[in-house]
Design goal:
Blueprint lengths: L2 H9 L6 H13 L4 H14 L3 H13 L23 H14 L4 E5 L9 H5 L11 H11 L1 E5 L5
Length: about 160
């Protein structure tokens, strides 16, 4: 399997197979596919779109490409909230502990600013002593003790 063949197939409007998408994501995340080919693939997706199945396979492949935080079953049902931008930093600090108080487990991963206003993490880190870079063990302790945590991505998660 070659990245260029997958790019060509998508450029020509064909439906990619699950194995092709998994291959492309694994090779792209390992650095085996150069950035210009990843860009070409993304442009082909913009031009031709993706089927529901392709979108699902891509989401699963991307989720499987990184490290996973294993949580014990006794922790309970995990939920998360994602916003499309603009309101997340206003709702998350209220919603996360509220859901935890109702019994939900919220291991929330937030993002940094993409603009001048600062993202949720940027705002939380302005609170003295608030840490968003937690180890997997610290995340587990927070979830077990409080039912929630708000963390940022790390090199592995």
């Amino acid at each position: 399997m070659r990245a260029v063949d997958i790019i060509r197939k998508k450029r020509d409007g064909e439906i990619l197979a699950e194995a092709e998408i998994q291959f492309f994501v694994s090779q792209a995340t390992s650095g085996a596919i150069p950035a210009y080919q990843v860009s070409a693939f993304l442009m082909a997706v913009v031009w031709r779109g993706m089927s529901v199945s392709e979108t699902q396979w891509l989401a699963f492949a991307m989720a499987a490409s990184g490290a996973h935080l294993d949580l014990p079953d006794h922790i309970g049902q995990r939920v998360d909230k994602h916003s499309t931008g603009g309101v997340g930093d206003k709702t998350s600090p209220i919603l996360v502990p509220l859901v935890a108080a109702c019994g939900g487990i919220v291991p929330m991963t937030s993002g940094r600013s993409l603009g001048y206003t600062g993202g949720t993490l940027d705002k939380l880190e302005s609170i003295p002593g608030f840490r968003t870079a937690l180890s997997p063990d610290e995340i587990r302790v927070m979830l077990d003790r409080y039912g929630c945590c708000m963390v940022g991505q790390t090199d592995s998660i």
